[in-house]
Amino acid sequence: MSRSRMSKLPGNAGVSLLGDKTLDFYRDPVIFCRQRIEKHSSRVFLCRLINKPTVFICSVEGMRELLCEKSNIFLKDPTDFMTNIYGDTVVTMNGEEACLLRLSLSHLFTGTCLESSSNYMSSVCDHCLKNLSISGQPHCVYSIFKRLGAELVLGLFLNVRAEDQPEVFQEIMELCTEHWHGLISVPVNVKVPLWTSGFAKALDARSKLMEIIKDKLENDTEGFVGALGSLPFPNSGSAAQHLLLFISALIPKALASLLTSFTLALGGPEQRESRQEAIRNPDHLHRVLLEVQRLWPPFIGGRRIAEKESTLADFCVPKDYGAVYVSYFIHRDPEVFQQPDSFLPERWSGRNAGQEHLLCSFGRGPRSCIGSTLTEIFIKVSSKPSATSLVLI
């Protein structure tokens, strides 16, 4: 579709409140976006989300501009309720403060800090996945992978290991889950006899988690907790707020989502050869994981606010408009990916090797996920025994 510079966005934002489509979007993001892409013949369109005119980005071109080239224009929303839950963190802040925090934290997620944890990660994977192929019974693999993610996260970030402190581990895991479920509920803090809103429960869980975290930061000098406590944060509560973010149920859920998709993608009889190759060949395993991430990203995407008038994919975006990038459709952009709906790990080989920047599952550009390297290691360490189990089933 040809269009002139500064074209008007297709779609409309409707009127305040009555025109809001937030519920429709979160009910089924895939159907919501697909219907509008087909209606407007465009992978960039306008709608009203969270009662704000919002540009939906479903193309690689638009994603690159939003997250990379114009990341200094499209900023995190400082009024987002995630800020109220997690406070000022590297995820929720903007500008120089966010950059300084990122620099302070980045070394904890790379190099020797990760290498020192590799044995623990391998042992947790062996422990959690060893029974998949020998029990003879069907399993809910998502639950198994979520438990695996929780053990990895709490062991690495909080020095709480399930085999050493099973009761403490269980308590923290349940609090993290309650905290997360409250985050995705209606943000209304209500308590009445015999009933408490999910958001109110999340705030209670947050208070209990913060007590545990502060005790760890004060008394534990080993591992990630000790290193985090020694960093020069802008205020006394910043280390605890970041640790709350790092141990959230979000990471285990993301890991479980990707590993479940990996299992389903390689689970059919027609994929037996690919399963065996994934065990033998690390490069093939890497390509399979990229293709799983492309087709089934663990997160919907992300949201930004336009600090001033700008453009995305040649469409005019007024000041204060929201902008949402939707990973599922960006990863299936037919302008970039041939046969976009097909599972083709080989697309990441040859001249397409090293093209991971086309994906945005964990963000992209200067605000990409600070733990993306750690997440990649999590996935690779746990996916190999998963593939082995599939071969033996």
From TrEMBL:
<keyword id="KW-0560">Oxidoreductase</keyword>
<dbReference type="GO" id="GO:0020037">
    <property type="term" value="F:heme binding"/>
</dbReference>
<keyword id="KW-0349">Heme</keyword>
<protein>
    <submittedName>
        <fullName>Protopanaxadiol 6-hydroxylase-like</fullName>
    </submittedName>
</protein>
<dbReference type="GO" id="GO:0016125">
    <property type="term" value="P:sterol metabolic process"/>
</dbReference>
<keyword id="KW-0408">Iron</keyword>
<dbReference type="InterPro" id="IPR002397">
    <property type="entry name" value="Cyt_P450_B"/>
</dbReference>
<dbReference type="Pfam" id="PF00067">
    <property type="entry name" value="p450"/>
</dbReference>
<dbReference type="InterPro" id="IPR036396">
    <property type="entry name" value="Cyt_P450_sf"/>
</dbReference>
<comment type="similarity">
    <text>Belongs to the cytochrome P450 family.</text>
</comment>
<dbReference type="InterPro" id="IPR001128">
    <property type="entry name" value="Cyt_P450"/>
</dbReference>
<keyword id="KW-0503">Monooxygenase</keyword>
<dbReference type="GO" id="GO:0005506">
    <property type="term" value="F:iron ion binding"/>
</dbReference>
<dbReference type="InterPro" id="IPR017972">
    <property type="entry name" value="Cyt_P450_CS"/>
</dbReference>
<keyword id="KW-0479">Metal-binding</keyword>
<dbReference type="GO" id="GO:0004497">
    <property type="term" value="F:monooxygenase activity"/>
</dbReference>
<dbReference type="GO" id="GO:0016705">
    <property type="term" value="F:oxidoreductase activity, acting on paired donors, with incorporation or reduction of molecular oxygen"/>
</dbReference>
